[in-house]
Amino acid sequence: MASANSINALERVKYIVAIASGKGGVGKSTTAVNLALALVVEGWKVAVLDADIYGPSQGKMLGIAENRRPEIAGGTHLVPVEAHGIGSMSMGYLASEKTPMVWRGPMATGALIQMLTQTLWGERDVLIVDMPPGTGDIQLTLSQKAPVAGAVIVTTPQDIALLDARKGIEMFRQVNIPVIGIVENMALHRCSRCGHVEHIFGEGGGARVADEYGTELLGSLPLDLRIRTQSDSGKPTVIAEPDSDIAQAYRSIARKLINALIENDTGSGPEIVIGD
Q1: pLDDT at 271
Q2: H-type helices in 149-189, by residue range?
Q3: Among 47, 203, 211, 246, which residue's beta carbon has the most beta carbons within 10 A?
Q4: How much is the pLDDT for 87?
């Protein structure tokens, strides 16, 4: 029945994009929510699926109340929870924040399939999937159950993070999902008092990995207190400070993502040339 539900739920979603990282703590979920909001600003209809079953965070970053539960349509399908122009679905809406998901792999993947295929996403230009860190069951299940248009890898310039970013790229290659590009978080820190700039976690690592794998460095974000505090408050930077340099960086990444999705879109069929 999953395949039938998949067709019904996803048939009006044009693109599915996975936001992934090889390891935790690199700002993947913060990137996912700000990128989703930046896509809305660019005029796209956006939904977000929080696929981090064990550590869902999208609800908090979108400012959704802890006790908010999704509506049920027809007794079988979930209705996305709306906030800031985005429809979202998360395990955080289906269980208490204080209730850990003490599940084995098949239970977690089953939950992912249900949220993916039994949510009424409606007409969306893109469904952003906030993946859990790593290269495990959830990543493989998504690649098997959904027509993923591409993946964005989030990393920091730190050598250890870049090792795991490479693993993430290789994993998506093995399941034939194109890696659209890399987002480098915590690329530099500017002192709020004196303006001195330091590359605390290294410099240029994201660009090197992008070159190594023939993909694109979509953008670099600073290590900045505002990104963390604004996401924690339920108003991520793109909507909290839309004119800030950080919000503009997310919008630049969003525009590059849009261009890549349209350029790689083969759904319209071959071009027909009429001539003599």
Answers
A1: 38
A2: 159-174
A3: 47
A4: 97
Domain annotation covers residue 275 = no
The enclosing domain of 165 has a CATH number of 3.40.50.300
Most distant CA atoms of the chain, gap in Å: 69
Q: Taking 70 as the threshold, does the pLDDT of residue 268 lie above it?
A: no
pTM beyond 0.90, yes or no: no
> What is d(CA 274, CA 75) in angstroms, rounded to the nearest whole number?
51
Tokens of 123: 């007409």
Query: Are 161 and 29 spatial neighbours (Cβ–Cβ below 8 Å)?
Result: no
pLDDT for the residue numbered 76: 87
Domains in the chain, number: 1
273 located within any domain:
no
SS3 category, 83: strand
Residue 274 included in any domain: no
Domain that holds residue 237: 2-264
Strands (E) located in the chain: 13-20, 46-50, 72-73, 77-78, 81-83, 86-90, 124-130, 150-155, 179-184, 189-190, 197-198, 216-220
134 within domain boundaries: yes
Cβ–Cβ under 8 Å, residues 35 and 146? no
Distance between CA atoms of residues 117 and 50, nearest Å: 13
